Amino acid sequence: AQSVTQLGSHVSVSEGALVLLRCNYSSSVPPYLFWYVQYPNQGLQLLLKYTTGATLVKGINGFEAEFKKSETSFHLTKPSAHMSDAAEYFCAVSDRTGGFKTIFGAGTRLFVKA
Amino acid sequence: EADIYQTPRYLVIGTGKKITLECSQTMGHDKMYWYQQDPGMELHLIHYSYGVNSTEKGDLSSESTVSRIRTEHFPLTLESARPSHTSQYLCASSGGGGLAGTDTQYFGPGTRLTVL
């Protein structure tokens, strides 16, 4: 069965610094991978997703993620953090063996310091 | 901008009460979901529906029930609330007819339930 591990429940960066949020997945078949963001008192919204094709995926708000099959990873990055990026970020996976149901990680809360 | 609504946003209720959490979407999506979210924990799928009159239990055991009589409406009911039901409940929908499993899910703002 597939699973998702997000390394670090909290990450703190300075404004303008690189953002790196780590996600590793477990799947025995080609996975579909997602990053969602949740701002306070709101539901989740999609940042980006990998389905097939190019392994470097660009999303909204300057975020991108790279699917690395050999490392079973899908880390989320942004070159320069902005105060408005402070939120909780969820990595998710779905695949054929799980009936294509989406499995979410526990989330990583990003803090951005001025 | 996704159009998916949940009411109430916050609910404090006593043990033993029956409650219904409402979820509606105006996007015509065939798939709808209920998740339970607790701080620092994975979102857990508790119910899903792939269309009218179709409902399934998710991976996390839940004492709640759901119905899907209309495409746009997917209410969740707890017959007798208990303190262990205290949590945030998120509703989501998806559609589009693309590759199975690649749907973007659109989430409502959630209902924070506290059972005293």
Question: Which helices and strands occur, and which strands form pairs?
Answer:
The complex is a heterodimer of chains A (about 110) and B (about 120).
Chain A: E1 3-7, E2 10-14, E3 19-26, E4 32-38, E5 44-50, E6 56-58, E7 64-68, E8 73-78, E9 87-94, E10 103-104, E11 108-113
Parallel strand pairs in A: 2-11
Antiparallel strand pairs in A: 1-3, 3-8, 4-5, 4-9, 6-7, 7-8, 9-10, 9-11
Chain B: E1 4-7, E2 10-13, E3 19-25, E4 31-37, E5 44-51, E6 54-57, E7 65-66, E8 76-78, E9 87-94, E10 106-107, E11 111-115
Parallel strand pairs in B: 2-11
Antiparallel strand pairs in B: 1-3, 3-8, 4-5, 4-9, 5-6, 7-8, 9-10, 9-11
What does this structure look like?
The complex is a heterodimer of chains A (114) and B (116). Chain A is mostly beta strands. Helix content of chain A is 0%, strand content 54%. Chain A is built from no helices and eleven strands. In chain A, strands 2, 4, 5, 9, 10 and 11 form a six-stranded mixed sheet that branches. Chain A has a five-stranded antiparallel sheet with strand order 1-3-8-7-6, with no helix packed on it. By secondary structure, chain B is mainly β. Chain B is globular, with a radius of gyration of 14 Å. Chain B starts with a strand and ends with a strand. Chain B is 0% helix and 47% strand. The A-B interface holds A 4, 9, 32, 34, 36, 41-46, 49, 51-52, 90, 94-96, 100-107 and B 2, 4, 35, 40-43, 45, 48, 58-59, 90, 92, 99-102, 104-110.
